[in-house]
Amino acid sequence: MNNQQITSPADKEMNFFDLCVAIGRAIGRLCVACWRLLSRMIRLTYRYWWLVLTLVVLAVAAAIYHTRTDNILYRVNAVAFINGASVPQFEQAFAPIMSGRLLPENTRMGWYLSHKQAQRFSIYRIVDAKGDGTPDYIDFKRKSNPKDTVLVQMQDRVCIQFCTPSYAIPLVPKIEAAILEVLNGNPSLQQSYEVYRQNLAEEVAFNHRQSMKLDSLTSAYYYNAGSVMPMTTNGNAVNYYGDRKIRLFLNDIYNQQQRARLYDYKMQLATAPVVLENHFAVSPKPVHSRMECVIIFFLLGWIVGCLLAEGVDRRKEIISWLKQ
C-alpha cells in the first residue's frame, strides 16, 4: 500500500477560483448581517416609535438650527503667484494664517480670524499636465506626487482656499487685502523677491536682445535675396519671397517670441512677493447644504433612537446583569 501524505487544510494552496468563492461567501454573510440589523432596527422603530420619533425630531431640529443662514459656510478660492520664493517658504509664511491663533487680534487679519469671518485655510498645489508651463488643474484631492515628471507640481503657483460664513461674503475683498498684507510683509519672501526681480529684469532684457538679433539676421537674408520662388501649399501655388535659408530661423523666432512673451507676463506679475492671478471667488455651493445636514442628522437620530430602544427592550437583562 502506497504511503499517502495527508496535508492539512491550512497548508493547502488556494487557487483563484477558491479565492473568488471565499470572497463571495464573505460578501454574502455581510449582506445577511446588514439585512438582519436593518430588520431589527425597523422592528424596534415600530415597537418604540414614540422614543425613536422624539430623537429624530430633535435631530432634525438641531440640523435646521445648525444650517441657519448665518452659519452656512462657503468656499473661497484664488490662485496665488509666488515671485521668487519657493513653495515651502510660502507655506511657512502662510502658517500663522492657517493656524488662526498666531496673529494678534489688533491686526486686520487677526480680527477676521478671531471673529470666524475667515476660517479653515488650506493650500493646494497646481499641476502642469502638458509640460508647457501653464496651470492645468488644481490638486484638491492632494494626489499629485512632487517627484512626478508627467503631472508636475508648479513651483510658482498655489491655490489658497478658505471658508467664510454667508454674512461675511461682502468682506471677501477686505480679507483678500489682509492676506496679501501678511504675506508681502514677510521678510523671507521679500528677500527672495528682491533677488528674483533683479534676475527677471535681466532675463527680459536678454530675451528682447535675442529677438532683435534673430529679426536682424532674418532681414539680412530676406532682403539680400531678391528672387521670388514659387511654393505649393495644400495644392495652392503661393509666392515665397526671400532666400531659402530664412526657413532655418522661423522655428527659432517663434520659440523666442513665446519665451519673451512668457517672461514679459512674469514681469508684469512681479509687483510684490505674492500676487493673485485672480481675485478670490466665492463658490455658489455651500460646504454643507441644509438638505445634506438634515439627512445626516436624521440618520444619526434614528440610529441613536434604535440604540435606546434596544436598551429599553432588554432592560430586564441589563438590570439582571448589573445585579450579578
List keywords for this structure.
single chain, Alpha-Beta Plaits, 9 helices, elongated, six-stranded antiparallel β-sheet, two-stranded antiparallel sheet, alpha+beta, 55% helix, 3 domains, 324 residues
Average the pLDDT over all residues and give the rounded result. 81
The low-confidence parts are 225-234, 237-242
Please report the distance between the alpha carbons of the first and last residues.
61 Å
- Strand percentage lies at 15-25%
CATH architecture of the largest domain: 2-Layer Sandwich
CATH C-level of the largest domain:
Alpha Beta
Structural class: alpha+beta
Main sheet, how many strands, which sense, barrel? 6 strands, antiparallel
**Structure annotation, total helices:** 9
Helical proportion, percent range: 40-55%
N-to-C SSE series?
HHEHHEEEHHEEHEEHH
How large, in whole angstroms, is the Cα Rg? 34 Å
User: In CATH terms, what is the fold-level topology of the largest domain?
Assistant: Alpha-Beta Plaits
Total count of strands: 8
How does the overall form come out from the CA principal axes? elongated
Number of domains: 3
